[in-house]
Amino acid sequence: MTGGPADGAGWRHGDPASEPGHAWHLDTRILHAAGDRPAAGQPVVPPIVTATSFHVEPEAVGFSAEDLAGEAPLFYARWGNPTVALLEQQLTSLEGGAAAVAFGSGMAAMSALFLTQLAAGDHLVVSDVCYAGVAELARLLPRHGIAVTAVDSTDPAQVAAAVRPGQTRLIHVETPANPTLRLTDLRAVAAIARAHGARLSVDSTLATPVATQPLALGADFVVHSLTKYLCGHGDALGGIVVCGDAGAAATLREQALIHHGAVLSPFSAWLILRGIETLGVRMRQHEANARAVSRFLAGHPAVAQVHWPGLENHPQAALVRNQMAYAGGLLSFAVHGDSRPLARRMAERLRLITYAVSLGKTRSLIFHLPTDDLLRTSFRLEGDAAARFRGLAGTGLFRLSVGLEFADDLIADLDAALAD
Ligand SMILES: *Cc1c(COP(=O)(O)O)cnc(C)c1O
Fold first, then answer.
1. Which of 12, 122, 131, 326 is catalytic?
2. pLDDT of 41-78, one tens digit each?
3. How far is residue 336's CA from residue 304's CA, in Å, rounded to a whole number?
4. pTM over 0.90
5. Distance CA 316, CA 323 (A)
6. Which H or E run includes 331?
7. Would you call 361 a catalytic residue per the annotation?
8. How far apart, in Å, are the Cα atoms of 78 and each of 53, 54, 239?
9. Is 203 in the active site?
10. Atom of ligand 1 nearest to the CA of 360
C-alpha cells in the first residue's frame, strides 16, 4: 500500500529513474522530482487535499489495513493522502530510497520505526548523544522487553562491541549529532550492521539530503524531522522514514501509521513541500553564514570551543569531507566559566537571534543546554562518557541555528550579547 496514486490530486511526482537524457542534479530534483511536465489543465502547484475519505468501488478495497495491497486506491486519509503522498515521493527521490512513510512529527517517525523494527527479545544499539527525545524514547523500550545499549557511535569500534549477535536487530545513529555536531561514520557502521544481520537507521535531520544520503552509504532507513531544515520556516511539524526496501515501508504504513495513527496533516505536508523547493539555496546560505559566525565565535575571548562540522579543526574533518557535501547551519559553542548568566544575557540582549528551541528555520535561534541537566535527564552519561561530554560542553552548550540573516548582522548581535 503506497498511500494511493499521487496523481489522485491531479498532480504527481514522477519516478526519478524515468528521467530522460542525463541524471538531474539534486538542486533540480528538489524542484522537479516530477519527471513529467504537468498535462494541460493540471495545476502547476500541488493541491492540498483535505478529504478524510475517498469514493471507492465496493470490490476495490477490504476494510482492514491487513487487506491492503501494493496499489490500493485512496480510501481513508489515515491510510494515505495525495498531498502527503507527494511529500513521501519527494523524500524518496531525494534520499534515493524505495518508499517513504510520513508522520505527524519527527518523534512519531522515530517511535514508528522502533516499534515496527523491534519486538520483545530484540536488542537496539543507539547513539548515546542524539536528539534528547530519541534518547528518552529509547529508555522506554525495555518496558516492552526490548534491550537497549547506548554507545558513543562516533567510534565504530564501540558500536561493534555493543552488538549482540542474533539479538541486535537495529542500530540507530544520528549524524551529525545534536548538540555536539560529531559525526558517525556511516559506511563503517553500515558494515557492522550488515555483518551481524542488523539494520541501520540514520537520523539525518541535521544533514538533510543535500549534505548526506545515508542509504547510498549502506543505511536501511533514513529518518528526518521534517520540522527542521526540510520545512525550513518553523511553521509545520512533521517526520518521515525513508526506506531502502519497499516491504519495510509497507509494514511501517500498516502497523505504525494506520494503527498508531500519528498521521501528517495535508496542510503541514503542503508547507513542507513548499519549504523543500528552496532547500538547496537555503542550505548553502545556512552553511556560509555558519562559517562566518563560527569563525567569529572561535576568535572571541569568551568562547572556549566551537563545534561545527565545517571548521578546519573539527576532530573528524576527514570524515566530514567524506560524508557531508555541506557542513550545515547548526553549530554549538561552550564558553569559559559559568554559561548560565550568559544564557540570561543572550535572552535579554539578542535582537536578531531568538532565544528559543528548535532549529533549521530561516531566522536564527539560540538555546542554552545546561550540561548537568542534560546528563541527568536526557543522556544519563556516566564515567568516561560524561567526562567527554563535559570536555566539549563545559557547564552548558549554546546551540545556535544560524539563519539566513546577513552574517555580519548576526555577528554584531552575538558580539553585543557576549560583551560583559
Ligand atoms: C527535532 C528533532 C527530532 C524530533 O523531531 P520533531 O519533529 O520535533 O518531533 C528528531 N531528531 C532530531 C535530530 C531533531 O532535531
1. 131
2. 888 888 999 999 999 888 776 767 666 655 567 889 99
3. 5
4. yes
5. 10
6. strand 330-335
7. no
8. 9, 11, 15
9. yes
10. 15
